[in-house]
Amino acid sequence: MDRSLQTKLFNDPVHGFITVPKGILLQLIDHPAVQRLRRIRQLGFGYLVYPAAEHSRFSHALGAMELGQRVLQNLLLRDTTISQKELEGTLIAILLHDIGHGPFSHALEHTLIRDFDHEMMSLAIMERLNEEFNGELDTAIQIFRNQHSKSFLHQLISSQLDIDRLDYLKRDSFFTGVSEGSVGINRILKTIRVHKGSIVIEKKGIYAVENYILSRRFMYMQVYLHKTVLSADILLRQIVRRVRDLIQKGEPPVIPSHSFGYFLTEYPSANKQVTDEMIDHYMQLDDHDVLQSVKAWSRESDAILKDLSLRFLNRNLPRTTFLKRKLKPQQREELVDQTFKALKKEGLHIEREDVKYYLSFNQSFSEAYRYENEGIWILEENQTAVEFSKASDAKHIVALTKPVIKPYAVHLKNLKIKE
Description:
By secondary structure, this protein is α+β, with helices and mostly antiparallel strands. The chain folds into two domains: 3-222, Hypothetical protein af1432; 227-327, Growth Hormone, Chain: A, CATH 1.20.1250. It has 18 helices and nine strands. The protein has helices spanning 24-29, 32-35, 57-77, 84-96, 118-132, 138-144, 151-157, 163-176, 185-191, 206-224, 227-248, 258-266, 276-282, 287-297, 303-313, 329-345, 388-391, 396-399, and strands at 7-12, 16-21, 192-195, 198-202, 319-322, 360-366, 377-379, 385-387, 404-411. The strands form three sheets. Strands 3-4-7-8 form a four-stranded mixed sheet. A three-stranded antiparallel sheet has the order 5-9-6. A two-stranded antiparallel sheet has the order 1-2. Strand 1 and strand 2 form a beta hairpin. It is globular and about 70 Å long.
C-alpha cells in the first residue's frame, strides 16, 4: 500500500473525525512545538467562569486545519486552481497560526515580552521549524506573511471571515455552553468562492455570515470580555508586576520555572526582532509554569505577593465594574483611599503606594465586523462582489461595524464605585 495514502484520525467533539495525511502535517503535529499547545488553554481564564472551557490551543489548531481541508477541497471542486504544494502550505500555515501563543493564551501576551504580539512569535517559530524541515515550510510562510501570489490563501488564515475565527467561535461556544455563539460553519464553508483572486461568499450564504457576525458580538460580550475573565487577567498581571518590583529591589522570590524566570527578570523587547534566546525560553512555557510559580509565591514571605497569589489560586478574584465613562482624578483618589483602608482592615500591612497592586483601570475593546479595507464580500447573481454591510438587508449589521469600548475598574469586592 502506498504510504502517502495512509492517514491518522483524531476524534474531535466539534467537527467529528479529523483526517490527517501522514507526512509533513503529521510530523508537525507530533513536534514538541505543537504538542506544547496541549498545555495552553484556548480560553485563558474562561474556565473560571465556564467549568467545561478546558479545551486547548492544540484542539483549536487541529480543528482549524480540518476546516481548512474542507474549504480547500470545496474550492478544488469548483475548479479553483490550487496546487498540491499550495494546498499543503495553506494547511501548515493554518495548523501553526497560533503556535506563538504563551501561557493562558492572551493573558500574558504583552507582559512577557515588550513590543510584541503572538503572531511575531508564530512566524519566528515557523521559520525555525522550516530550517529543521529543510525548507518544507517555505510556501506556508509565504502564505502566512501574505507574500504568496494567490492572496486568497492568506485570506483563509487571516481576514474578517477566516478559518481561525470559524473554528474558535464554534469550539468556544461548544465548550462554554453559550449557544448564542454557535456558527453555521458548514453553509459558510460550502458557499466560499474565489472571485477575481479574492475570497467571496455566494449570496445564498449571506444569512450564515450575518449569524457569524452576531455570534462574534455575543461571544465577546459573554465570554472573551466577561468581567470575571478580565479580573483574573488583571490579577495575574499584578502578580507579575509585584514579582518584577521585588526583583528590582533586590528581593527576588523563588521562581520554579527557569524560562518564566527569564522573562520576569530580563523582560526582553522584540522591537528589532524575536531572538533565538526568546524563542528557546518561550517554547518551554505553558500554563503549568505559571500555576507552579503562583503556588510557590503563595508561600513567600512578601505579604503582598503571598496575598495576591492566594487570591488567584483560591479564585478570590477582584471585581470588575464597567463604567459609563472614565473616572475623574478625584474619584480615582477616593478609590485609592478606600482600598488602602480596606486592606488595612483585612490585616495587610502595606504602604499607600502599594494600592496599585489591588486597583487598576482599563478599557475593553470589541469589534464584531470591520468593513474598511478588509470586509466580507458577497457574490451577487450577476457575478459582481458587494461588501457585506451593503449587500445585507439586515440594517443592524451597520451598527455592528462600530467598535464597542467600555472603560472598567478592577477593585476589591467589598468596594462600590460611585460614578
